[in-house]
Design goal:
Layout (H helix, E strand, L loop, with lengths): L1 H9 L6 E4 L5 H13 L3 E5 L14 H12 L1 E2 L5 E7 L2 E8 L8 E3 L5 E7 L2 E4 L2 H9 L12 H10 L7 H8 L3 H13 L3 E6 L2 E6 L1 H6 L1
């Protein structure tokens, strides 16, 4: 089992793996559970520092907090599987989080509001209303018909230059309201024309690599 954990750690944190030195707040850990659930699932290693060194789980209280995070701080609750591994006398807790069949899974933000999160690389980001639309409509996207009018063509022409765009920038560019901008962007995501990416500056949209290659 020691080799199994070391192999996980050697790959570093990413879209499917997160290290936690300890759990002191079930609300904060719930955001990671939400992000894994809404993206592709993943694993938490509790008792591992950011640099990959082993610290070990400090107390039984952390077991209760991860359980509380999954059951009480996520909506709907997240079904997790926990296992413990003892390596050089230190206990490492592995928490497996499956991708949810009931997306979006929400957790409370720092202001107590229920928000949905997604995972990108080794970070969690709050989903905007476009992404929420994509999740809600993804099961009904088959047969989606796009009508390319002036606004849609304006967006494509803007993105063809390798540009990225936020919802607000699209609104300003096209002179449309939020609802119209969000609907067009979600249509484009569902059809595979564009993808969403996130950074500390916010969420933006760009042409998908497949569309770029085929244009």
């Amino acid at each position: 089992m020691g080799r199994y954990i070391h192999n996980l750690i050697s790959g570093g944190e990413g879209v499917n793996l997160d290290f936690k030195y300890c759990i002191s707040d079930p609300g904060k850990i719930a955001r990671t559970l939400s992000a894994f659930s809404n993206t592709a699932g993943g694993k938490l290693l509790i008792g591992v520092r950011d640099n990959g060194s082993l610290a070990g789980v400090r107390s039984d209280e952390e077991y209760y907090m991860i359980d509380a995070a999954a059951r009480l701080h996520c909506e709907p609750e997240v079904s997790i599987i926990t296992r413990t591994h003892t390596i050089n006398g230190k206990t490492i807790m592995e928490v497996q989080v499956p991708r949810s069949t009931s997306i979006p899974v929400r957790a409370r933000d720092e202001h107590g509001r229920w928000k949905a999160y997604f995972r990108q690389k080794d970070q969690n980001f709050m989903a905007d209303r476009v992404i929420l639309q994509v999740w809600r409509r993804s099961g009904k996207a088959r047969g989606l018909l796009l009508r390319f009018e002036e606004t849609e063509n304006m967006l494509l022409n803007h993105l063809r230059g390798g540009e990225k765009i936020t919802v607000q920038e699209f609104r300003n560019l096209a002179g449309i309201n939020s609802r119209q901008a969000e609907k067009i962007l979600s249509d484009f995501v569902l059809c595979g024309l564009i993808i969403y990416e996130a950074s500390e500056k916010g969420i933006f949209y760009r042409l998908s690599d497949k569309f770029e290659a085929g244009k």
